[in-house]
Amino acid sequence: MGSLPDALIASQVGIWETDLGNDRTVADAVTAALFNLDSMQAALGLPLAAYVEAILPADREAFFTSLDRVSEQGGVFVGEYRVSSGARGLQWVLARGHFERDEQTGEVVGRGIVVNTTESKPNWPVEDRTFFALHKNEPPLERLATYALQARRVVDDVGEHERSALRLAVDSLLWAVGRAIARQNHF
Question: What is the pTM of this model?
Fold first, then answer.
């Protein structure tokens, strides 16, 4: 995953990638902290269950329902749920990603961001905000997030010399889009 810009760490926006077929989720230090996981282990990849363990039991069914849909069809995953972040206690997380199914292998890989939205939840209402949306007729910010996630994947294919600068630019764009989506939806 590489190092993250200080702005991403300070803003509590993290990046993740999951391979559902191989049950391996790789995440940056921000995502690991939100899910109370070791950042070194998260960078190497952990089973999805390690992340799900941090999700409050009351929010897990909606999380899995949405995840099941994208694992069958691919598409956009957007959900908000609560996690237990160790010493930081209960945190609200907005996750957004795009899942693609490889037509030849059938494997499903997803890439996305998580945003800590706790500060925008003064009363922490308990409500189910996890949902699934296909990328047809997406609002502009959602489309931009999808394209930025696709750009992040392509950056990994770029030569070593150019990769770090491009990764920094795309990560900053993902941070800005994540914050804009959170503000727009008042999460």
Answer: 0.64
Greatest Cα pair distance, the chain, in angstroms, is 47
Copy the structure tokens of residue 47: 């089973």
Q: Which two tokens stand for residue 111?
A: 């890439």
State residue 144's pLDDT score: 78
Residue 75 to residues 11, 72, 102, 160, Cα–Cα distance (Å):
26, 9, 12, 29
Q: Which of 5, 56, 52 is nearest to 172 (CA)?
A: 5
Q: Select from 143, 140, 115, 141 the least CA-distant residue to 129.
A: 115
| pLDDT tens digits along 24-59 | 999 999 999 999 999 999 999 999 999 999 999 988
Structure tokens at 99: 């899942």
**Residue 173 in this model has a pLDDT that exceeds 60:** yes
Measured between alpha carbons, how far is residue 69 from residues 65, 101, 126, 133, 149 in Å? Answer: 7, 12, 23, 9, 19
Position of tokens 């939205």? 117
CA 147 remoteness from chain centre: 14
Mean pLDDT of 165-175: 80
